[in-house]
Amino acid sequence: MKTLIFIVLVSLAQTALADAAAIIKEAEALNAKARSMENAWTPTTKLIAEAKAAKAEGDETRASQVGERARMLAEASIRQAELERENWKTRQLVK
């Protein structure tokens, strides 16, 4: 029974490790897309660095939480760029 509990705990820890790494990787990819659209936000880059630091320190929970915030900001910056690209068409330029 103790062996089974140990295996389950190790498995959960490995899942958390993979999740934090995946979240950070996704945040980096989305931030790169935002940069390519010339609309990356500075806080996103800082949060990615913070998530990587937390992961390096072994704090997977914090790495996942901060990585998720970075991912959400990157998505928002992409959405903003897309909206601005569409909205400029309807604006009147004042001379």
3D structure, described in words:
The chain has a domain at 23-79. Helix content is 82%, strand content 0%. It has three helices and no strands. It has helices at 2-36, 42-56, 60-87. The radius of gyration is 19 Å and the shape is elongated. The mean pLDDT is 84.
Topology:
Elements: H1 2-36, H2 42-56, H3 60-87
Helix pairs in contact: 1-2, 1-3, 2-3
Order of helices and strands: HHH
The count of DSSP E runs of length 2 or more, i.e. the number of strands, is: 0
Main sheet?
none
Low-confidence stretches: none
End-to-end gap = 78 Å
Radius of gyration: 19 Å
Strand content: under 5%
Shape, per Cα inertia axes: elongated
Report the helical percentage. over 70%
Mean pLDDT: 84
How many helices? The count is: 3
SS-based class = mainly alpha
Compact overview of the structure:
With 95 residues, the protein is mainly alpha-helical. Helices cover 82% and strands 0% of the residues.
Keywords:
elongated, 95 residues, 0% strand, 82% helix, mainly alpha
